[in-house]
Design a protein that fits this description.
Two copies of one chain form a homodimer.
Chain A (H helix, E strand, L loop, with lengths): L4 E7 L4 H13 L5 E7 L2 H8 L8 H18 L9 H7 L3 H13 L5 H15 L23 H6 L3 H10 L4 H11 L2 H16 L7 E6 L2 E6 L4 H8 L8 H7 L1
Parallel strand pairs in A: 1-2
Antiparallel strand pairs in A: 1-3, 3-4
Helix pairs in contact in A: 1-3, 2-10, 5-6, 5-9, 5-10, 6-8
Organism (chains A, B): Solea senegalensis
Catalytic activity (chains A, B): RX + glutathione = an S-substituted glutathione + a halide anion + H(+)
Protein name (chains A, B): Glutathione S-transferase kappa
Chain lengths: ~250, ~250
């Protein structure tokens, strides 16, 4: 039994603020006395069910977000650079297939969460750093050889398939692991797992992502966005050393 | 001539996040090498003209804000406690009369901004700490004696008049100063000044309040909300010492 606080980190790779929060949270895993549980969720479902509207619909807010993200990315030291059409990437294309893929990676990984961390990071990098589309269907001719034998229909229709494969490869998954993940992706179990995680986030009060949640005497405490670390640190009795704790510590 | 950076702080006393940001900004006036210019503006106009919607319309967001404000207030050390009906106070009653009053205080005060700072603080305290209404019209019998002679109609109809008077008194304004401010309140000059400040905020990109703005080579840099101090400090080359810089400094 451990008395460590468990911080659930709900995120979606379509959300750039989730990326910033994710990298900072990953850096603090070994600085704060907490356990971090990565909780891939579906932002589209959270927005729709909570009745929230994308911030990008207000022109001044959208302009601000673009600038705010650039400034924060530089300060937090995350190589984020918005895609050609950030509004389309964030709010119109969606991330259902991508988040099912991440959920399947997590489901397959029994020991720790190194793979789900790496795959998530690679997907963010592709959308938010390399301007790649995670929703284009792959053509059959592009499907790599090691996947022959899998349902052709799934492979051809699957949105973003090639990007997922590249991300998984770069994250260090083997061909056979990737095959397993792809087979898992389409199962009802994985679809349900993503739905359930998203519903759990909504039940404790989500209206967007990223969201942090830990329990105090059974009650959920939530923090929304990438800008509540200092406050959260205060609430859990830990120290905020800025978004780059290792640099900051070495300076002191 | 001074090379100090001037930070324009746009705010409305109806906004609780503005209060938190205001107190932190006031504390840093003497810590950072900056000049702070208080810019009373009208939140209702900014929301309407930018096409933004109150966050309180999304139930999960409203619940979160209430909790977030309590936690932040405690951390920032501002005696904020939400009124009985925060939604009504924030989004339905409005603050036009209050912000004209604050604008008039600022207009009358020639030397510095001690009075406008104090009056703003007292108004926040009344709504956000003492659950008082800033929009109730005063009845004629409640109007203090020193104001006799002023337009009876204005006094009777003016929303929140008694609360403004109390705030101004507590902020240290004399009876004659208060009388001058009340006379200014209804002039076209003050109405226009509030409109112009609000429009200036919109022109540089506002979609809500509080908002910070300074210029770099003539271009406006804006920061929205009470949670960008650490980033703003980084951008202007100053040090973030937490929301209570004097406590934090003395500890180091």
């Amino acid at each position: 039994m451990t008395s460590k606080k468990t911080i659930n980190f709900f995120y979606d790779v379509v959300s750039p603020y989730s990326w910033l929060a994710f990298e900072v949270m990953c850096r603090y895993r070994n600085v704060w006395d907490v356990e971090v549980k990565l909780r891939p969720a579906f932002l589209g479902g959270i927005m729709q069910k909570s009745g929230n509207k994308p911030p990008g619909l207000v022109p001044n807010k959208f302009l601000y977000m673009t600038k705010d993200l650039q400034r924060l990315a530089q300060y937090v030291d995350v190589p984020l650079s918005p895609p050609d059409d950030p509004f389309e990437a964030m709010f119109q294309k969606g991330s259902l297939a991508a988040m099912r893929f991440v959920t399947a990676v997590q489901e397959r990984e029994k020991d720790g969460d190194r793979q789900v961390e790496q795959v998530s990071r690679e997907l963010w990098r592709r959308i938010w750093s390399e301007n790649k589309d995670i929703t284009e269907p792959a053509s059959l001719s592009e499907v790599p050889e090691y996947l022959t034998g899998m349902t052709v229909k799934y492979l051809a229709l699957s949105q973003g398939l090639l990007i997922f494969l590249q991300a998984a490869k770069k994250a260090g998954l083997s061909d056979s692991e990737i095959k397993e993940v792809l087979e898992l992706c389409t199962t009802q179990h994985i679809k349900d797992k993503l739905i359930n995680t998203t519903q759990e986030a909504l039940d404790v009060g989500a209206f967007g992502l990223p969201m942090f949640m830990y329990r105090v005497n059974g009650n959920a405490e939530i923090f929304f966005g990438s800008d509540r670390f200092e406050l959260m640190a205060h609430c859990i009795g830990e120290k905020w050393l800025g978004p780059q704790p290792h640099k900051s510590t070495s300076k002191m």
